[in-house]
Amino acid sequence: MAEASKQDLIVGVDLGGTKILAGVFTSQLKLLQTAKLTTKADRGFSSVVERIARCVLDAVDEADTSVKHVRAVGIGAPGAVDPTEGEVIFAPNLKWEKAPLKAELEKRLGVPVFAENDCNVCTLGVHEVEFKGKPRELLGIFLGTGIGAGLIIDGKLYGGFNRTAGEVGHMVLEVNGPKCGCGNQGCFEALASRIAIFREISKRIKDGGKTILTDKLVENVIEEAAEYTGIAIANLVNILSPEVVVLGGGIMDALEDEMLSIIVETAHDYAMPGTMKDVEIVASKLGDHAGITGAAVLARQHAKGS
Ligand SMILES: [Zn+2]
Q1: Model pLDDT for residues 238-287, shown as the tens digit of each residue
Q2: Distance 24 CA to ligand 1 centre (A)
Q3: Of 61, 175, 177, 217, which has the fewest Cβ atoms less than 10 A away?
Q4: Could you give the count of Cα atoms lying within 13 Å of 226 in the half-sphere of its Cβ?
Q5: With bands split at pLDDT 50, 70 and 90, how would you rate the model's confidence at 69?
Q6: Phi and psi torsions of 25, nearest 5°
């Protein structure tokens, strides 16, 4: 690689409750190298920041370059993030409150750092890299341990008044449904996340589901999760009228074949007539790299002109 282009590298970081993934990208968002480290959230904020910095430096080293060639670092964190201050306001999985992620990471790396909510970051990545920034209105929904989303409205990431827009996981779909981590009942997340799927399978086995084929039981639970996802999408399409709905996250990556067609069919059944015209509902192809790609997009947007 020519020395000139080395000056302009970007690092994207996907910070999760259990692992940290860092990717080194060119300014054209070509992925050069990745590195992975466990989060060890129980060791506390300072220790996790130190591990993020180490993961970034590992990725940079694997790419045969050095951090002085890195123009900016972007990071997606699992929780509510104030993107202006780069502060994690609340991240239950990490047990963080008012954590100055940007400031502490900048101290350790000596490079500008930009932070955002992880689902917002994934949506940015999908919009910019997978869809080449074309759709003006795009909704990204990520099904994993929990459920989150990001909104692109008028071509830009939409944060809303409190910068908390996109909490679709806590849209109530069954008023008398199962309890959710947020304290409510019947949230989308309590019905269709990985935790919800596992809980429902073990509940049905306990309730005597052993008498029927367990495979069939698992299939039924996954089908129901797909139906709830379709209903959630119908609600969101009625409200937002996106051009594209992109689905990602661990559940989607693993169960696209089992879930996507049911999701699309249910969304069409429940949406108001006319609202689904030409709306694309697709699975993201970025998989595990959506987070680092989006974090790189975030860093590139902010670093432009700096
Ligand atoms: Zn909830």
Answers
A1: 999 999 999 999 999 999 999 999 999 999 999 999 999 999 999 999 99
A2: 35
A3: 175
A4: 23
A5: very high
A6: -120, 150
Q: What is the C-alpha radius of gyration for the chain, rounded to an integer number of angstroms? A: 20
C-alpha 9 to ligand 1 mean position (Å): 39
Q: In the 8-state DSSP scheme, what is residue 272? A: P
CA of 292 to the centre of ligand 1 (A): 26
**Six token digits for residue 127:** 């919009």
Q: Is the Cβ–Cβ distance between 255 and 194 less than 8 Å?
A: no
Q: What pLDDT, on a 0 to 100 scale, did the predictor assign at position 48?
A: 98
Among 79, 77, 59, 55, smallest CA distance to 69 is for: 59
Residues 223 and 205: their CA atoms lie apart, in Å, by: 17
pTM of the entire predicted model: 0.92
Q: Indicate the burial class of 43 (C-beta count within 10 angstroms; 0-12, 13-18, 19 or more).
A: exposed
- In the reported structure, the alpha carbon of residue 199 is separated from the centroid of ligand 1 by a whole-number distance in angstroms of 15
Neighbours of ion ligand 1 (CB under 5 A): 170, 180, 182, 184, 187
Cα(17)–Cα(93) distance, integer angstroms? 6
Angstrom distance (rounded) from CA 306 to CA 299:
11
Ligand 1 centroid–CA 259 distance in Å is 22
pLDDT for position 212 = 63
Closest CA to 200 of 218, 214, 176: 218
Distance of CA 249 from the midpoint of ligand 1 (Å): 18
| Distance of CA 187 from the midpoint of ligand 1 (Å) | 5
Strand partners, 25: 10, 31
